[in-house]
Amino acid sequence: MEYYTVEKKNNLGEQYIELSVFQAITNHEVSKINGINFDGGKNSVNIEINDHNQVIIGIDIVIDYGLNVGKVVSEIQNEVVNAIDRYIGFRNVKVNVNVNKIKF
């Protein structure tokens, strides 16, 4: 298992968050958005930590024809970042969305 280390240390101890927590939050938030589907099933959300201890989330989606791609991608990014802030308490997150197909 790989963990994100929360850099806010206090006298209570250190905090470690399994990357699957970020994946679960991302899956939940993206599934609430109308007109999109994951492209690739379980492999549609990829979570990594870069050299700056930033969580990088990659999401592969299929979007319904007729939707504004830019608006939908921005909505996904905002919803995921806000949910992670709400549930975990930080915003050191980057969300990359790959629109792989349009569903007609």
Care to describe what's here?
With 104 residues, the protein is an alpha+beta fold. The chain has two helices and six strands. It has helices spanning 19-31, 69-88, and strands at residues 3-10, 13-18, 36-38, 45-49, 55-64, 93-103. Strands 3, 4, 5 and 6 form a four-stranded mixed β-sheet that branches. A two-stranded antiparallel sheet has the order 1-2. Strand 5, helix 2 and strand 6 form a beta-alpha-beta unit. The chain is elongated, with a radius of gyration of 15 Å. The chain starts with a strand and ends with a strand. The mean pLDDT is 91.
What's the main sheet like?
A: 4 strands, mixed
Radius of gyration: 15 Å
Mean pLDDT: 91
User: Based on helices, strands and strand pairing, what is the structural class?
Assistant: alpha+beta
Brief synopsis:
With 104 residues, the protein is α+β, with helices and mostly antiparallel strands. Helices cover 32% and strands 41% of the residues. The chain has helices spanning 19-31, 69-88, and strands spanning 3-10, 13-18, 36-38, 45-49, 55-64, 93-103.
